[in-house]
Design brief:
mainly alpha; two-stranded antiparallel ribbon; 6 helices; 76% helix; 4% strand; elongated
């Protein structure tokens, strides 16, 4: 592959990963979450770059050595677990956990970037739309039928209040 073709391929992957991350981040921003467009764009972009480095750049630079991109993928997963863990909080007064959905979306956004970095564009697009479906459409269904975690906790609290004391 010529260097201009390689540069075009890498640039396309990076821009594509950024756009797909931004789509998920846009939904999070519209939902009033702190982790939004920039956060998700950077997570997806960074994951794509790690995979491009592992799958393309390093093997070109060190042709005598064998590289396994799945090792890089594994490290992305571990690193994102640390980052996503920082988004999850237990609210003592309300006795509930918050940030789980955003943490999960961060995790999937990294996977989308990794898929783009490996050239799995269709998989990345389908996953982006599925994430949007979960974050937007399923959220609306939860609200309509009062299925959200907050409302389940409220129902449980109300049931405990209504139970007769012996």
């Amino acid at each position: 592959m010529e260097s201009s073709d390689l540069l075009l391929s890498i640039s396309t992957k990076l821009i594509f990963a950024l756009i797909l991350g931004a789509i998920i981040g846009l939904e999070r921003s519209l939902s009033g979450k702190q982790a939004g467009i920039r956060t998700f764009s950077l997570i997806s972009l960074g994951s794509a770059l790690f995979m491009i480095l592992s799958n393309t750049i390093i093997p070109l630079s060190y042709s005598q050595v064998s590289f396994d991109p799945t090792r890089t993928l594994g490290q992305i997963i571990v690193g994102l677990g640390f980052l996503a863990g920082g988004l999850v909080f237990f609210k003592e007064k309300e006795k509930r956990v918050s940030g789980l959905t955003t943490a999960a979306a961060v995790w999937v956004s990294a996977a989308i970037g990794a898929a783009v970095g490996l050239g799995a564009y269709l998989t990345a697009i389908i996953t982006t739309f599925l994430v949007f479906f979960v974050l937007d459409i399923l959220f609306r269904i939860e609200k309509k039928f009062h299925l959200s975690e907050d409302e389940a906790i409220n129902r449980e609290s109300n049931l405990k209040k209504e139970e007769p004391k012996e």
